[in-house]
Amino acid sequence: MKDSVINPPVSRADIGYFSGLGVSVVHNEEQLEAKFNVDALGKYHGSAQVALFPTSTLQVSDILTYCNQRGISVVTQGGNSGVCGGAIAHQGEVILSLRDMNKVRDMDVISGVLVAESGCVLEDLDNYAQKQGYTVPVDLGARKKCMIGGNVSTNAGGLRYLRYGSMHGSVLGLEVVLPDGRILDSLFTLKKDASGYDIKQLFIGAEGTLGVVTAVAISLAPKPRASQLAVLGLQDFSKIQRAFVLARQNLGEIVSAFEFWEKRCNELVVEYESYDSPLSNSHEFYVLIETRGSCLRHDMEKLDTFLECLRGEELIDESRVVRDAEDMDKTWLFRSQMAHAHSKSGHMHVYDFSLPSKHQYELLVAVKGHLEQAGLYGKPGMPVSDVTIFGHVGDDNIHLQVIAQEFGGVVEEAMEPWVYEWVGSHGGSVAAEHGLGSHKGQFLKYSKSPVLIETMKSIKQLLDPKNIMNPGKHVSRA
Amino acid sequence: MKDSVINPPVSRADIGYFSGLGVSVVHNEEQLEAKFNVDALGKYHGSAQVALFPTSTLQVSDILTYCNQRGISVVTQGGNSGVCGGAIAHQGEVILSLRDMNKVRDMDVISGVLVAESGCVLEDLDNYAQKQGYTVPVDLGARKKCMIGGNVSTNAGGLRYLRYGSMHGSVLGLEVVLPDGRILDSLFTLKKDASGYDIKQLFIGAEGTLGVVTAVAISLAPKPRASQLAVLGLQDFSKIQRAFVLARQNLGEIVSAFEFWEKRCNELVVEYESYDSPLSNSHEFYVLIETRGSCLRHDMEKLDTFLECLRGEELIDESRVVRDAEDMDKTWLFRSQMAHAHSKSGHMHVYDFSLPSKHQYELLVAVKGHLEQAGLYGKPGMPVSDVTIFGHVGDDNIHLQVIAQEFGGVVEEAMEPWVYEWVGSHGGSVAAEHGLGSHKGQFLKYSKSPVLIETMKSIKQLLDPKNIMNPGKHVSRA
């Protein structure tokens, strides 16, 4: 399998062929650079000479048939909101943007199953679903930009995973164009299916390395009739864990999100986004809890009982309940802009781990210690200005930010592979919800066994023998 | 790929080798016939000469290494409660029983993740989980017999799918021994993971054709603090569908099961199991709704409001709310014994389909008409005594029973492939939760596209090139 590819320059004949299919083609360097050859954080830069904008599955099939025959590599792009370089054409690949495949194909209002093309923007899709009495079971900070095909391809987790679970459960069917142009129609819309291998699962989280996801059938959740938030201020990390156990007991089926962040994260959002802190006082840790239910009166009572419980066990120093719609939006925005605030404060090395909750705070202490020892952090003027964590409690998903004066360099050298090794040896995964992208495949060995990695590679070889789909990324780097 | 196999007779040397591993071996014909060479309904008969009972993953690995080298085919067996012949050694394969691998390996009481060996009986596992404040998110009628490894391998759906969703979402990790004996350690216990292809998904529903699942990591649901049932009597099928929509709106997050059955099913349970009908009067259709929540007072109020709604729209003729624990057990037992009652009344041809709800009743009418036209049903003494449906509303999963004087014969000839074609052409799946087993692979083409079936077969070829795992079944028959 070719792991590193010098892609043949796209010829006039190639462009002529693509145009002849009726596909929009962009090959203006400036346009490419501004929108398609750079990632959301400005960290990864690509060198695609051409971006294609098919409007139908058949066009995607024609494009891949052509590229496969000629060994032209392809990078699929959705909203280009990824932070791991997975959608960037590092080696001059052709960019296949799904932006113009953005139709809702079907919506069953009885069963709550939506069939949408990959280019539908997540927020638009959720607005559409809400009008029919449902909500899309995945939500994340990039909702205004990311697209459902990309959500599937990166196995997006997000803010309400705790309630609605994984894409592997909620995606019922996929339409995929295989690398050789064949259309794999697996766009099943019924909930139970035990007829053969569940092939579509392979494309969930494949980051465009096995084919192009062109449409998604997804089981929606009923739109909640009632929602409320509580923001808590706490003194130490162990109290967050205890609060989570009490939330599951007292809020039970209505808890839909349980987020935490630490003091410095709060300060960065206040400083760089000019938002008000959601609490009056400053705390070591903050927790944001959301409930979604079908009866506000019941949910209010449950939340009050839960907060009583927290106070009874002296777990919290401050709490605020938010029930006003505008205030809820503002509070969520504060949480959603956290990564953005970090990236404004410097060059953000972002890490996205699954880690048993008992090791999460330990990770922060270990990273700070490691960087201090390396002489990179702890004193003014040093390369690292901040090391922070925030995350999704209950999903065991933690984001670690190391803010530096530049991308890469001594900071990356000190951090990697050290931090991946640390996470792997503490039972974690090197990628929880951001994916492997172009960079992290090499660290997969720290959290996955050799037989598992071999099996992944054999699947890649089976479905993409010419290695034209997103070459040199993901498990190809493992 | 060899689709039909004449298995070499197991030699004394083979038995000597297996015994030498410390594995229990049964090769007494009577014992084999009584327990391992016949399925739950007495429909499928096998011809295994030997059954092996490993107690460790390493033993399973040694057995498969040996069998793979010698081309000895293997059928994996759990509780042997399947109804599609998937666990039966039709061609004299070696039976690999996971019965003695029945330890709980780990339980995290904070995150609610359980790691159990495949031979754990589902009910035992749920009892264990309940003691820790959790419940296993899958439940089915065979709970006293079926084992968690078999539940995973058949992608079991069951009674509370509506609430807890699919195995593809709740199984976090698997340990699998590949056909060549390599151990695929994918026993991940954290909830989010976006690092490479989710290989374990392939084994969920593979019915032992790709390897042996030896252990399962599963995300449990919190044990409900409150539970209640409502049984409804209704006049026609469309009212069930409307009641379901109202249940999702009014009961929202607490509805955990929504089952229906028709009049004749009710009569059969009363007649053959000697249970009292759950309602005083006789009705065309019955619905059983379960709620599971964290506050009984709230849940009672929600259920009352919902029943008011049903009465307001004149959807129901009778209703009974059950809150007494013993009465709840009895009511559930009535539902659980439905298949058993059918099988006592004659030879049960059981069909398990996913079908859009709007076509479910239509199916019953079509089948009755078809069998009448064939002169097989409708008058006393004809080969078919009963045709019934019951199922899981909201999962689009319907069970069709055709009760005949014998298995196979003219009834099967009249029904197949006709009924599979009918289901496929109405947007359904030929297998919803029972699996393909030894018989249904040939009908897969009615609900899955050729490219999808080709891809499934290529996966089988990739992982089991010598075709030793459950040969001639599942997608190999497609």
From TrEMBL, chains A, B:
Enzyme Commission number: 1.1.99.40
Q: A Gene Ontology CC term for this entry?
A: mitochondrion
InterPro entries cross-referenced by the UniProt entry: FAD-bd_oxidored_4_C (IPR004113), FAD-bd_PCMH (IPR016166), FAD-bd_PCMH-like_sf (IPR036318), FAD-bd_PCMH_sub1 (IPR016167), FAD-bd_PCMH_sub2 (IPR016169), FAD-linked_Oxase-like_C (IPR016164), FAD-oxidored/transferase_4 (IPR051264), Oxid_FAD_bind_N (IPR006094)
Which Pfam families does this one have? Answer: FAD-oxidase_C, FAD_binding_4
Please report the stretch or stretches of sequence annotated as the FAD-binding PCMH-type domain: 44-223
Q: What family, per the record? A: Belongs to the FAD-binding oxidoreductase/transferase type 4 family.
Protein name per Swiss-Prot or TrEMBL: D-lactate ferricytochrome c oxidoreductase
Q: What is the species listed in this Swiss-Prot or TrEMBL entry?
A: Coemansia aciculifera
